[in-house]
Design a protein that fits this description.
CATH topology of the largest domain in chain B: Globin-like
Keywords (chain B): Phosphoprotein
CATH superfamily of the largest domain in chain B: Globins
Domain STAS (chain B): 167-278
Order of helices and strands of chain B: HHHHHHHHEEHEHEHEHH
Number of strands of chain A: 5
Strand content of chain A: 15-25%
Oligomer: heterodimer
CATH architecture of the largest domain in chain B: Orthogonal Bundle
Number of helices of chain A: 4
Largest sheet of chain B: 5 strands, mixed
Structural class of chain B: alpha/beta
Protein name (chain A): Anti-sigma regulatory factor
Radius of gyration of chain A: 16 Å
Distance between the termini of chain B: 107 Å
CATH class of the largest domain in chain B: Mainly Alpha
Helix content of chain B: 55-70%
CATH superfamily of chain A: Histidine kinase-like ATPase, C-terminal domain
InterPro entries (chain B): Bact_StressResp_Reg, STAS_dom, STAS_dom_sf
CATH class of chain A: Alpha Beta
Number of strands of chain B: 5
Protein name (chain B): STAS domain-containing protein
Number of domains of chain A: 1
Number of helices of chain B: 13
Strand order of the largest sheet of chain B: 1-2-3-4-5
Chain lengths: 148, 297
């Protein structure tokens, strides 16, 4: 029996600044429930915060979908950020560190990618953007086998 | 069409005169309804008085000829009272649906009384009258719910403003050293307030050192970092050196992965370290008391 709490798939609307705080809380709860370590939680929440803000500012609002996604014995969490905004014309440029079209630091997409294990960007100019990230709670193996 | 309007007006006028005539009886019946009975627990007279006020308001609305108008000025006189009643029910753990149901339950006794009036007139007239009264009671239900909900929204907006003020105290730690303990989400509105109060404190306290403690900030993403950098830059322009303290291990790792360069900002792990640094810079040495040193010799 898994020790972690049950985490079910959920959808969170992103339509205002206050929704961003709700997104962070939902991700924190789900990640903590699956047994993510504090550092892993913080990384995932920060990535979610960046992407949710992109959804709000560049995509004009949308939603986030949380789905548990275990890999073997390791619990995992997949987050999809979906908007139907203008899309990204130049993905390479958008993914570059320091490039911004919104007055920020330009680290949202590239930074979020570095914070998670899997990063998928699906965009089409005029038809919106979907960013899907996945992180697994990696259990650190003990440095050496226990003495018998 | 005009006939219909005329009939509606006639029905409304009828309902109005009915409400005025049977005011006492309606109030007596309503005072036993759960909505009034549980809110006005002190005395039955109090409940009856409250019921009469509502009946009067309804009669005035009926008189205006627009029983469906929830913005009718006549409702204004009982809006406060209705809002208090709804709030009291909500505090008792009732859901909006249940409160709405309780208001709806007020309809049956009045309709019953009205039907009793029409024993000798035609069925059509009776129908018109009951319909007008039903519309009127529906409006009352909407008014109660609207009042309750807008009160809730007002409360939330007020609390948000309060939070904005409360959450950003600037503390004078020492002569020339001020600190802001940041707690919670640092969004654009909050960081604006923080920056303003910090800059004001720097001037007022003639501070040379300002400490921003982020122990209570759960997430530092690129926007929060940008807000911090802007605040530090502004403080620097005022001639104060800024120290960001309270960076937890998890936050530190996240900032590095995110690629944020905080190299230009002076940082310390804890508030105590930041204070020690600022004191040392001012040439103030913190040491144990002479007596204590003597005893260890």
């Amino acid at each position: 029996m898994p020790a972690s709490r049950d985490v079910t798939a959920a959808r969170v609307a992103i339509g205002s600044d206050t929704d961003l705080a709700w997104v962070r809380q939902q991700v924190r709860q789900a990640a903590a429930g699956l047994g993510f370590s504090l550092v892993q939680q913080t990384k995932l929440i920060t990535a979610a915060s960046e992407l949710a803000r992109n959804t709000l500012i560049h995509g004009g609002g949308g939603y986030m979908e949380i789905t548990p996604c275990p890999q073997g014995t390791a619990p995992g969490l997949r987050l999809s950020f979906v908007d139907s905004g203008p899309g990204i014309r130049n993905v390479e440029q958008a993914m570059a560190d320091g490039y911004t079209s919104g007055g920020g630091l330009g680290l949202g997409l590239s930074g979020a990618k570095r914070l998670v294990h899997e990063f998928l960007l699906d965009t089409c100019p005029g038809r919106g953007t979907t960013v899907t990230i996945t992180a697994w709670a990696t259990v650190v193996p003990s440095a050496r086998p226990e003495a018998t | 069409m005009t006939d219909q309007v005329g009939a509606n007006e006639a029905a409304a006028a009828q309902v109005c005169s009915f409400l005025q005539r049977r005011r006492e009886q309606i109030a007596q019946r309503w005072a036993d309804a759960s909505l009034f009975r549980t809110v006005f627990t002190l005395s039955r007279e109090e409940a009856v008085e409250a019921c009469k006020a509502v009946v009067d308001a309804l009669a005035d609305v009926a008189l205006s000829g627009r029983p469906e108008d929830i913005a009718a000025p006549a409702f204004g006189t009982v809006r406060d009272q209705l809002g208090r009643m709804a709030a009291s029910r909500a505090r008792a753990g009732f859901t909006p649906a249940q409160i709405s149901e309780e208001v709806a339950a007020l309809r049956a006794p009045v309709v019953e009384l009205l039907r009793g009036e029409f024993t000798d007139s035609s069925e059509a007239t009776a129908q018109e009258g009951v319909l007008a009264l039903t519309v009127l009671m529906g409006s009352l239900r909407l008014v109660v719910m609207e009042t309750a909900l807008s009160a809730g929204e007002e409360l939330i907006a007020r609390q948000r403003l309060q939070l904005l003020e409360v959450a950003t105290p600037v503390i004078k730690l020492w002569e020339g050293i001020v600190a802001v303990p940041l707690i919670g989400t640092l969004d654009s509105a909050r960081s604006q307030v923080v920056m303003e109060s910090l800059l004001e404190a720097i001037v007022a306290q003639r501070a040379q050192y300002a400490i921003l403690d982020i122990t209570g900030v759960p997430t530092v993403d690129s926007l929060v970092a940008q807000h911090l950098m802007k605040t530090v830059a502004a403080a620097r322009l005022m001639g104060a050196e800024c120290i960001v303290s309270g960076i937890r291990p998890a936050i530190a790792q996240t900032i590095v992965h995110l690629g944020i360069d905080l190299g230009t900002i002076l940082t310390r792990a804890g508030l105590a370290d930041a204070l020690a640094y600022a004191l040392a810079q001012q040439g103030i040495e913190v040491s144990a008391h002479r007596m204590a040193r003597a005893s260890t010799r």
